[in-house]
Amino acid sequence: MIEVDPERELIYRGPVKNRSCTDVVCLVIFIAFLVGWGIIGIYGFILGDPQRLLYPTDSYGRICGVDEKLKDKPYLFYFDLTQCADSFLFTSGCPTPQVCVKTCPVENFVAIDAAAETGEALTKIKMICKENVTVSEMSVKELVDKGYCASYYIHSEPLAGRCVPLLTNTSDIFSNSTLGPVVPIEKIVNVASSLAHYLILDRIFQELSETWWVILIGLAISMIMSFFWTVLMRFAAGLMIWLSIAFILVLQGGGTWYCLKRYTESPEANNQTLADNESATNLITSNERSIWHITAIFLCISMAFIILMLIVLRNRIRMAIALINHASNTVGDILSTLLFPIFPWVFQVLVMGYFAAVALYAASIDKSNFRVVGPDNKTNINCSCTSVIDSVGTCIPLGFEKICDIQCPGSTCRFFDTGADFYVTLLQIYNFLGLCWSIFFVSALSEIVLAGAFASWYWAFSKPHDVPAYPLANSFFRTVSYHLGTVALGSLIISILRSIRVLLEILESNARENSINCCCCIIQFFVWILEKIIRFINRNAYVLCAINGTGFCQSASDASSLIRRNVADIVVLDKVTEFLLFLGRFVIVSTLGIVSFYVFTNKIPCVNECISPTDFFVVPIISTVLGAYFITGLFFSSYSMAVDTIFLCYLQDTEINDGSAEKPFYMSQELKEILGKKN
Predict the structure, then answer these.
(1) How far apart are the first and last CA of the chain?
(2) Which of 138, 382, 594, 670 is the most exposed place for a label (fewest CB within 10 A)?
(3) Cα separation, 653 vs 121, whole angstroms
(4) Nearest-5° angle of CA 546, CA 547, CA 548?
């Protein structure tokens, strides 16, 4: 029996067939926006050079390891690292001579002291100097005083192509040196300490490069587990949910006991800084005791929260399990919906790849700035060599020393930084908006397609015999043919809110006053809440759009009215079902996390031969857990959308039908029993 709303003539037995295009204007705007994004990409690809960002640049703007004369010199050495802007070393310039070298220094060296101890000849061999400097014609002191050679260097290691000093035996470097009063030890320690987070990141990348194949195996296992889990839910959804709850409670109890055991066994942490340790690894391991303590507290609190939820919301949980069981039958009858989320994910990865490429090429469009630097390594000097120096102090490096030797004695023209033009900033903003809009567009398209397929299943009276053939394919073609404008409008709203949040985060990070930081945090919080509410409304609007064929505004209005009339059921039940599905994901992720912990900490003898010990074992473990969580989200997203669609259809079902012969309920028998309804 087909039921029709006399006021709006909408058929409530599945998605209507007679529909028209919705929100066409927004679709046209979105297409024009994508065309503009493509033009920006082409512009960046033509004019940009990412090598300028990926590789270090010497004082003459040449790229180490890339330029013809520097291919055998991939590392950048700073004559005096204390002149650099600490943590901005990789993003801005440094008013000290910078030369490309074959290898970073492997010892501590002070030129004046070395000359006194071993003689001038041996000292000159070890010195790091500029190009085209004849060291044999000058003494060591002259080479140092004129800035032709570095006065000292410290045992360093390469970091992003830059030679960064290690913090070992720093106190002994200038103990007997005449440079001690000129270059305080504290400044070197402070500069190197400010770069410690870059050292940690470098170590993390090294760990990932060594363990990536093990991580991929773990992700493949998580994919297999997710697939079998979703298949098992088709036959015993309720049992799988309760087993998930029991597993989580046991896991949390055992995890709490294990963390407390490790906490009591771990030694007390000393008040050490990075400068007191030989490497960044020691700083992390010194906090092991507090990490175990915090983890134990977190597990204990989360276990108490789950137990409290089970007691207070037991009736809602029963209904949520019935909905999930209903959704399991839906997904089981339309198995293609299990694999469908993989395709939107592939498109999102392509979008993010395009965004990263455009951002990289656009950033490399920036112009390199060269500044005049005096003998004292200062840039604010009076130098009247107008042929190669402009009014703001920027200069042309080629031929500077020959042309301006008389007007600017002892000065050099060095690479200072990469200046960002205003139009490049606008390109980056446009690129970021393109990322947000495209990502949310693909996500919304996936939701509305799945909603149309699941609605076709619900409104079939005799399931699965009355379900239309190829419901997912039909829903996809309906969406592409009629509702891409609706998808574009809904995703535009979310992308605007997300952009506002990112802008507020940037303002907060750059603000120096506490009052501004506080205001930004408060506004961010409310924008975050607003985004959550809008995404919830959008999701339900997509369901009604897939069923009724209405535009975004009408669908959102209908969804809001439906939610308002059933606010208690929707809010509580939606969160309960979301939480129960999350438990299933958590079982898979936590299992992978436990296994990866034993693998990367070399606690499995048969695996130790294949995997070498790692200093940062937390890095591959976290990578495996995050990847597994994302993969399980792909498989469980179909269930989540099925639950939301079925519940919204159920609300419509109870409003337009009464269980009589003329108006029978379309819900499953299990839902009828729980809700006390019957035909």
Answers:
(1) 13
(2) 382
(3) 94
(4) 105
Dig out the tokens for 537 from the structure. 């409304």
Q: How far apart are CA 427 and CA 444, in angstroms?
A: 25
Q: How far is Cα 13 from Cα 461, in angstroms, rounded to an integer?
A: 9
State the DSSP string of 357-381: HHHHHHHTTSEEEEEEE-TTS-S--
Please enumerate in sequence order all residues whose Cβ is within 8 A of that of 105, keeping only pairs 6 or more positions apart, or say none: 77, 128, 153, 154, 155, 156, 163
pLDDT for res 62: 81
**Cα within 13 Å of Cα(484), Cβ side:** 12
- Look up residue 462 and give its two tokens: 């005799």
Q: DSSP for 167-221, please give it.
A: -SSGGGTTTT-TTTTTS-HHHHHHHHHHTHHHHHHHHHHHHHHHHHHHHHHHHHH
For residue 256, CA distances in Å to 42, 217, 253, 308 come to 54, 28, 5, 18
SS3 153: strand
Q: Is residue 199 within 8 Å of 611, Cβ to Cβ?
A: no
Question: Minimal CA–CA distance to 590: which of 255, 208, 217, 224?
Answer: 255
Give the C-alpha distances (Å, rounded to integers) separating 481 from 414, 476, 477. Answer: 59, 8, 6
Contact yes or no for 361/50 (Cβ under 8 A): yes
pTM, entire model: 0.76
Tokens encoding 72: 């055998």
Among residues 64, 84, 80, the alpha carbon closest in space to that of 72 is found at 64
Question: What kind and span of H or E run contains 256?
Answer: helix 196-265
Q: Are 183 and 155 in contact (CB under 8 A)?
A: no
Q: Where are the alpha helices (DSSP H) in 266-313?
A: 280-285, 288-312
Rounded Cα–Cα distance for residues 344 and 352 (Å): 12
Q: How many CB atoms lie within 10 A of CB 328?
A: 23
Cα–Cα dist 224/226, whole Å? 5
Task: Give me the torsion for CA of 46, 48, 50, 53, rounded to 10°.
Answer: 180
* Whole-angstrom distance, CA of residue 351 vs CA of residue 414: 38
Element holding 625 (H helix, E strand):
helix 618-656
Helix, strand, coil in percent for the chain, rounding step 5: 65, 5, 30
pLDDT means over runs of 10, the chain (679 residues): 42 70 94 95 86 76 84 88 59 72 88 87 90 85 86 82 68 48 59 63 71 84 86 81 86 86 71 47 56 84 86 80 81 85 88 91 74 61 62 63 67 63 83 95 94 88 78 92 94 94 84 77 90 91 91 91 79 78 86 85 70 71 87 85 86 80 76 70
**Tokens found for residue 409:** 């004695």
- CA–CA separation, 603 vs 595, rounded Å? 10
Round to whole Å and give the CA distance between 598 and 124. 52
CA–CA gap between residue 266 and residue 259 (Å, rounded): 10
Are the C-beta atoms of residues 431 and 439 closer than 8 Å to each other? no
**Contact present, 472 and 453 (Cβ < 8 Å):** yes
DSSP E strand boundaries for 225-374: 367-373
Q: Looking at the chain, how many residues does it have?
A: 679
pLDDT digits (tens, 9 = 90+) for 563-615: 888 777 777 777 788 888 888 888 888 888 888 888 887 777 776 667 666 66
Say if residues 455 and 547 touch (Cβ distance below 8 Å).
Answer: yes
Tokens of 473: 């394919």
Rounded (5°) CA angle 596-597-600: 75
Distance of CA 230 to CAs 250, 345, 566, 581, Å? Answer: 22, 18, 29, 11
Amino acid, res. 227 = F
